[in-house]
Amino acid sequence: MPHEQALAQILLEQLQRHKKGEAPKRAAHPYAEQDKGEHKIMQRIRLPFLKKYAIQSVVALAITAACCQAASADPITSVFGSSWTQITAEDNVGANGYVNPGWGGQDFDAEYLYYKLAGNTLSIGLQSGFDLVDGHVLHGRNYYAGDLALSFDGDDSTYEYAFDFGLFTKDYYGHLVDADTSLPDGKDAAGLYAVSTWNQGIYFTVSNPFAMDGGTLVANANGTTAAGADSTLDSYWRTFSFDITSIGNFVALDAHWTMSCGNDAIDGHAAAPIPEPATMLLFGTGIAGLAGLQRRRLSKK
């Protein structure tokens, strides 16, 4: 292998000289001084060597081109249908897999945030190229999904709540992240938490906050969270619901999400949602029914 590495460097430099119209400088090359037998080695293996590395270079370039193309995933309409309102769309994979502020391509692309409100039940949905089913991506090393940071007071400078998906979590530096300081295991019960401490241990700190490192459970998920994937879009989704009476004053909805490297993040803002028309229709129907009952009573008299 040392000879092949040396030859690779020699051939690369010769190719560069050829492109510039310069003559090869075999005798003056430093490797010629270090290894007098190099010329014989080159004569013996040069042709197969060139073929081997030419093929490898072509394959590598093809793979790189495929991985680095800009890409995007459409909303998963089978999950986020007409009853959902899109808070924000951040879906964008640029050249060389850039997703802002980091790289990694579709596997690290944060894409869409949604919500819907039915009565007092607020549902929030997240779509991402990052695996939201098990919350883990292996990309040279292990990366983990963060918690969804939430604020309801109209001030997104501080997120006072987090929805924990109930998944195993570590930060970029390998530290377990959960609300249980007495016996940390990297996992909390799924639900809405009032946050006391945020973990900020990600590589691109501009994408913080990452995940709850201390907090109190406000509303248990109780089976209201669901997750899945769309293989055609190469995209994952996760939804959850909770009773908004558990959070007190509801001025607006601000949401933020990222992963343990912080390669990408998504932020969204929406005014306090108005309950679905169906709720008001039921209310109106009830009033009409009471009015009809009152008329019947008066007619009997």
Description of the molecule:
With 301 residues, the chain is α+β, with helices and mostly antiparallel strands. It folds into two domains: 2-67; 85-278, no CATH class. Helices cover 26% and strands 28% of the residues. It has four helices and 13 strands. A six-stranded antiparallel β-sheet has the order 9-8-7-6-12-13, with no helix packed on it. Strands 1-2-3-11-10 form a five-stranded antiparallel β-sheet, with no helix packed on it. The protein has a two-stranded antiparallel sheet with strand order 4-5. Strand 10 (226-230) and strand 11 form a beta hairpin. Helix 1 crosses helix 3. It is globular, with a radius of gyration of 29 Å.
Q: What letter string, H or E per element, gives the SSE order?
A: HHHEEEEEEEEEEEEEH
**What is the terminal separation in angstroms?**
106 Å
Quick one: how many beta strands? 13
Strand arrangement within the widest β-sheet reads 9-8-7-6-12-13
Give me the secondary-structure category. alpha+beta
Parts with pLDDT < 50 across at least 5 consecutive residues = 1-7, 26-36, 53-70, 278-288
Describe this structure in a few short sentences.
The protein is α+β, with helices and mostly antiparallel strands and 301 residues long. The protein is built from four helices and 13 strands.
Blueprint (SSEs and pairs):
Blueprint: H1 2-19, H2 30-34, H3 38-67, E1 85-89, E2 110-118, E3 121-128, E4 136-138, E5 142-144, E6 148-151, E7 161-164, E8 191-199, E9 211-220, E10 226-230, E11 235-243, E12 252-258, E13 265-271, H4 277-300
Antiparallel strand pairs: 1-2, 2-3, 3-11, 4-5, 6-7, 6-12, 7-8, 8-9, 10-11, 12-13
Helix pairs in contact: 1-3
